[in-house]
C-alpha cells in the first residue's frame, strides 16, 4: 500500500501545497511580464511625443496615466499575492499538523 492510499488527506494537502507554490510562480511571472510590457508602452509613447501641439501632448499624458494605473494594479497584485500564499500555506500547515496528530493518536490506540 503506497502512502497516497494510506494517508489520503495528507497526500491531498501536499498536492494542494505544491499547486499553490506553482500557481504563485506563474502569477508572479505573469504580473512581472505585464509590468514590463506596460513600461515598454510608456517608452513608446514618450519616444513618439515630439509634437508641440498641446492637444497631442495631453493625449499622450492621458495615455501614460492609464498605463501607470495598470502598472500600479499589477504591483498591488505582486504585493498581495505572497501574503495570500503565506496565509494559505499556514492553513495547510495547520491542517497537516492536526492530521498528523490524529494519525499518531490512532497509531497509539492500535498499539495499546
Q: Could you describe the 3D structure shown?
A:
The structure is a single chain. The chain has 112 residues and is mainly alpha-helical. It has three helices and no strands. It has helices spanning 3-6, 8-48, 54-111. Helix 2 (8-48) runs antiparallel to helix 3 (54-111). The chain is rod-shaped, with a radius of gyration of 25 Å.
Topology:
Layout lengths: L2 H4 L1 H41 L5 H58 L1
Helix pairs in contact: 2-3
SS field, number of helical segments? 3
Cα distance, first to last residue? 23 Å
Note poorly predicted spans: none
Helix proportion of residues, in percent? Answer: over 70%
**% residues in beta strands:** under 5%
Instruction: Tell me, rounded to a whole number, the average pLDDT.
Output: 87
Overall structural class, as computed from helix and strand content, comes to: mainly alpha
Shape: rod-shaped
The biggest beta sheet reads: none
Q: Would you count the extended β strands for me? A: 0
Question: What is Rg?
Answer: 25 Å
Order of helices and strands: HHH
In brief:
The chain is mostly helical and 112 residues long. The protein has helices at 3-6, 8-48, 54-111. The chain is built from 3 helices and no strands.
